[in-house]
């Protein structure tokens, strides 16, 4: 299958919120909650996408002519690209009846591992969601990163015990999920966590702990103090707080503050290998991509995932070669145009 064929096929089985648009930019699903659209006036998702498009790159081909290497190492594991599938949950509520969370993770985790990258998996109020994710990661030889919601401490430990049994090489928490409606008013309470609570969680993880949902320099410093090995600069796709800045806007300052001290991921509106290049030039070590992987699974299953990874690889290699970078470490801010 081609990328276009996968996209067209996805349109036959997705919806009503996600429409598998040619450009996944938040316009078609604007202000659809629940669903992939952003909260409030619906501009959070749109802004994330637009800010990557506004960045321009500096072409420079006066350099040595040699092969481009897109490989990336994370916590002792080598991947084909600095790209990971982001955690996504409530598949049937948001994207259509074709797959539930367990079926989606079964396809995504194994397909990503086969394609040379790894998937983050989601969590939910139904315990079977995390249990299924753990099974999928275990079946893939630990090649996945389970993502735990910020439940109360007792439930977090229980879920992390399951995560550890998968053989995963890292565990994440999307701390910004504290703003999701289904986490509010729970007994025992779930939601925001203090630095001390996060330090306890990081220690309990027993593997590198990744904190997703960082949007400020102060938040990044708190994550570092809490013992996180990595952060994801993310506003949850604009779905938890209206009128946040785009992740591309806050990334450079965060990278300046904690870069080299911890791994920095970024997500939000990243769609192409060119976007990946721009993110790395702004200071990220790697990126997470969510909705396009959903579209690829719905439209082409495991084959769709491979088609998308191949597309990202070709685009990233082209951007690197045309800007004079032959390895990820050579990508730097000077490769972005500034007036």
UniProtKB/TrEMBL annotation:
<dbReference type="InterPro" id="IPR037396">
    <property type="entry name" value="FMN_HAD"/>
</dbReference>
<keyword id="KW-0560">Oxidoreductase</keyword>
<dbReference type="InterPro" id="IPR012133">
    <property type="entry name" value="Alpha-hydoxy_acid_DH_FMN"/>
</dbReference>
<feature type="active site" description="Proton acceptor">
    <location>
        <position position="236"/>
    </location>
</feature>
<comment type="similarity">
    <text>Belongs to the FMN-dependent alpha-hydroxy acid dehydrogenase family.</text>
</comment>
<dbReference type="GO" id="GO:0016491">
    <property type="term" value="F:oxidoreductase activity"/>
</dbReference>
<protein>
    <recommendedName>
        <fullName>L-lactate oxidase</fullName>
    </recommendedName>
</protein>
<feature type="binding site">
    <location>
        <position position="239"/>
    </location>
    <ligand>
        <name>glyoxylate</name>
    </ligand>
</feature>
<feature type="binding site">
    <location>
        <position position="234"/>
    </location>
    <ligand>
        <name>FMN</name>
    </ligand>
</feature>
<dbReference type="InterPro" id="IPR013785">
    <property type="entry name" value="Aldolase_TIM"/>
</dbReference>
<keyword id="KW-0288">FMN</keyword>
<feature type="domain" description="FMN hydroxy acid dehydrogenase">
    <location>
        <begin position="63"/>
        <end position="339"/>
    </location>
</feature>
<keyword id="KW-0285">Flavoprotein</keyword>
<dbReference type="GO" id="GO:0010181">
    <property type="term" value="F:FMN binding"/>
</dbReference>
<feature type="binding site">
    <location>
        <begin position="267"/>
        <end position="271"/>
    </location>
    <ligand>
        <name>FMN</name>
    </ligand>
</feature>
<dbReference type="Pfam" id="PF01070">
    <property type="entry name" value="FMN_dh"/>
</dbReference>
<feature type="binding site">
    <location>
        <position position="236"/>
    </location>
    <ligand>
        <name>FMN</name>
    </ligand>
</feature>
<feature type="binding site">
    <location>
        <position position="212"/>
    </location>
    <ligand>
        <name>FMN</name>
    </ligand>
</feature>
<dbReference type="InterPro" id="IPR000262">
    <property type="entry name" value="FMN-dep_DH"/>
</dbReference>
């Amino acid at each position: 299958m081609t990328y276009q064929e996968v996209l067209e096929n996805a349109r036959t089985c997705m919806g009503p919120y996600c429409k598998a648009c040619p450009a996944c930019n938040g316009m078609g699903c604007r202000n659809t909650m629940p669903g992939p659209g952003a909260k409030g006036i619906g501009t959070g998702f749109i802004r994330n996408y637009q800010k990557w498009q506004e960045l321009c790159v500096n072409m420079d081909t006066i350099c040595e002519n040699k092969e481009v290497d897109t490989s990336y190492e994370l916590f002792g594991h080598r991947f084909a690209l600095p790209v990971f599938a982001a955690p996504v949950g409530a598949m049937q509520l948001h994207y259509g009846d074709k797959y539930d969370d367990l079926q989606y993770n079964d396809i995504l985790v194994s397909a990503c591992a086969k394609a040379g990258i790894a998937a983050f998996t989601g969590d939910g109020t139904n315990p079977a969601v995390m249990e299924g994710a753990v099974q999928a990661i275990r079946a893939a030889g630990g090649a996945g990163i389970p993502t735990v919601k910020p439940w109360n401490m007792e439930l977090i430990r229980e879920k992390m015990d399951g995560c550890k049994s998968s053989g995963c090489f890292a565990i994440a928490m999307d701390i910004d999920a504290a703003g999701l409606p289904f986490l509010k008013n729970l007994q025992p309470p779930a939601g925001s966590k203090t630095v001390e609570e996060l330090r306890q969680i990081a220690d309990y993880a027993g593997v590198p702990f990744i904190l997703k949902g960082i949007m400020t320099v102060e938040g990044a410093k708190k994550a570092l103090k809490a013992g996180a090995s990595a952060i994801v600069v993310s506003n949850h796709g604009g779905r938890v707080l209206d009128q946040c800045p785009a992740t591309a806007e806050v990334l450079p300052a965060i990278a300046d503050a904690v870069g080299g001290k911890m791994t920095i991921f970024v997500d939000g509106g990243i769609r192409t290998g060119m976007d990946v290049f721009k993110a790395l030039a702004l200071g990220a070590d790697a990126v997470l991509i969510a909705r396009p992987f959903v579209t690829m699974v719905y439209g082409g299953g495991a084959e769709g995932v491979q088609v998308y990874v191949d597309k990202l690889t070709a685009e990233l290699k082209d951007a690197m070669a045309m800007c004079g970078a032959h390895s990820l470490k050579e990508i730097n801010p000077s490769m972005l145009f500034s007036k």
